Amino acid sequence: MFIDKIGIDGKIIEALASGTRRVIIKKLYYKPRTVSEISREMDINKSAICKHLNILIQTGLIIRKENGNEFVYYELSTKGKNIIEINNNVKITILLSSSVFAFIFGFLEIYLYQKEINKTIYWGDSTVNVIQLIIGITLVLISIFIFVYILRIWNRIYLKK
Fold first, then answer.
1. For the chain, how many structural domains are there in total?
2. Which terminus, N or C, of the chain has the lesser number of Cβ atoms within 10 Å?
3. Looking at the structure, do residues 87 and 149 belong to the same domain, yes or no?
């Protein structure tokens, strides 16, 4: 289970309970940042950011890196990256499943509509349900939009664009 993989304990849960710290973790996922950068991007004063960063350091979710000059950078630790990546993988899995189901059921609705049309032509029955066709097309279009959204998430997360 993923809890074992990243070693979640009470301190990590408390650290992640703060929305500000969750935003900091998401920002650090894409690139290391200084206190000033985080402060400017989030519009929060530096002392508050430092307090949040210290809590995240104590939990082992981020690490402090000094690069030899006057700047100190903060970046995600392996444990912090695992939390973000598990969250992203779950999101992609759920969206991909939804896309596949929407496509299958949409295609099925279109197929059943076509079958009904053929029966109407053969038997002369004029009770064709156009709503079935509309539902089918809508589900197929929704599945395509979800799939495009998944590709955008994939590019942003794994290709870091």
1. 2
2. N
3. yes
Boundary of a domain, candidates 50, 76, 102: 76
Q: Are 79 and 61 a contacting pair, CB within 8 Å?
A: yes
Tens-place pLDDT, residues 24-50 = 998 998 889 999 999 999 999 999 999
Domain of 52: which CATH number? 1.10.10.10
Least confident of 41-45, 140-144, 155-159: 155-159
Q: Among all chains, which residue has been given the structure tokens 């109407």? A: 120
In this structure, are 61 and 89 located in the same domain?
Answer: no
Residue ranges of the alpha helices (H) in the chain?
2-6, 10-16, 19-30, 35-42, 46-58, 78-123, 130-158
Half-sphere exposure of 21 (CA within 13 A, CB side): 23
